Amino acid sequence: MSAGFDVEIPGAVGARAEPAYACLPERPRRGMVIIHELLGRQPEIDRVVERFGRAGYAAVAPDLFAPGFRPACIARAMRAVATGEGAAVDQAIRARDWLTDETGLARESIGIIGFCFGGGFALAVGRHWGAVSTNYGVVPETPLLQGIGPVIGCYGGRDRVFGRNGERLSERLSALGVPHESHTFDAVGHSFLTDGDHPVSSALSRPLLAIRYDPDVAEDGWRRIFAFMERHLPPAAG
């Protein structure tokens, strides 16, 4: 099994390369672009890349906040959630195209998964990917979801900010006729799928978000996500 590694993905014409973390197993059948949380690239996101690699996916996580002054990068990424366009979107697409160049995978065999901020981002740009996994993020307005592929959403019932978004997701995708699943796990709050250790941010946000990694619920969520992707991302031939 290939190990994860740091990589620099060619940037826009005339721009510097863009850092990412990737895992390229031998003869991958599918691919995944991973979008980090509002904290940016963190060790737990690297571990998500490695999880997909162990499952036979070619995986890459672009660092959307690396190219410049972090507040400005965050602002441009948040605009992308609202519009589905912009430099952050282009950066994610270049990461997807890097996967196709490195592996020969077709674009329709590559999905996108995002967490927190990244969950809303994945929905906003989902029309460029074969399938989408959105996790405890915002749900863009219906027009921005047009053309999106199959979607699976996971939310924590104790999350007072995003916990009801599963219902909103189902409502908007049903109106568009998009195949989807929405799962709300009542025992957990925000960020339950990744095993990050951020005690200060967790304490400050606890009354609203109830951030807590729960390995049992997380594994249930991951099982559903992988099963969904296996059904909806066409595998590479061979």
Would you give an account of this structure?
The protein is of the alpha/beta class. It has a single domain, classed as Alpha/Beta hydrolase fold, catalytic domain (Rossmann fold), CATH 3.40.50. Helix content is 40%, strand content 19%. It has helices spanning 43-54, 70-83, 87-103, 117-124, 142-145, 165-176, 199-209, 215-232, and strands at 5-9, 18-23, 30-35, 57-62, 110-115, 132-135, 151-156, 180-185. An eight-stranded mixed β-sheet has the order 1-2-4-3-5-6-7-8, with helices on both faces. Strand 3 (30-35), helix 1 and strand 4 (57-62) form a beta-alpha-beta unit. The chain starts with a strand and ends in a 6-residue tail after the last helix.
Keywords:
Rossmann fold, alpha/beta, 8-stranded mixed beta sheet, globular, single chain, 8 helices, 238 residues
In short:
With 238 residues, the protein is an alpha/beta fold.
SSE blueprint and pairings:
Layout: E1 5-9, E2 18-23, E3 30-35, H1 43-54, E4 57-62, H2 70-83, H3 87-103, E5 110-115, H4 117-124, E6 132-135, H5 142-145, E7 151-156, H6 165-176, E8 180-185, H7 199-209, H8 215-232
Parallel strand pairs: 3-4, 3-5, 5-6, 6-7, 7-8
Antiparallel strand pairs: 1-2, 2-4
Helix pairs in contact: 2-4
Distance separating the two termini: 18 Å
Secondary-structure content class:
alpha/beta
Number of domains: 1
- How much helicity do the residues have? 40-55%
> Which ranges are low-confidence, i.e. pLDDT below 50, for 5 or more consecutive residues?
none
Overall form: globular
At the fourth CATH level, what is the homologous superfamily?
Alpha/Beta hydrolase fold, catalytic domain
Order of neighbouring strands in the sheet with most strands: 1-2-4-3-5-6-7-8
Examine the secondary-structure arrangement and name the CATH architecture: 3-Layer(aba) Sandwich
Radius of gyration: 16 Å
CATH class descriptor name? Alpha Beta
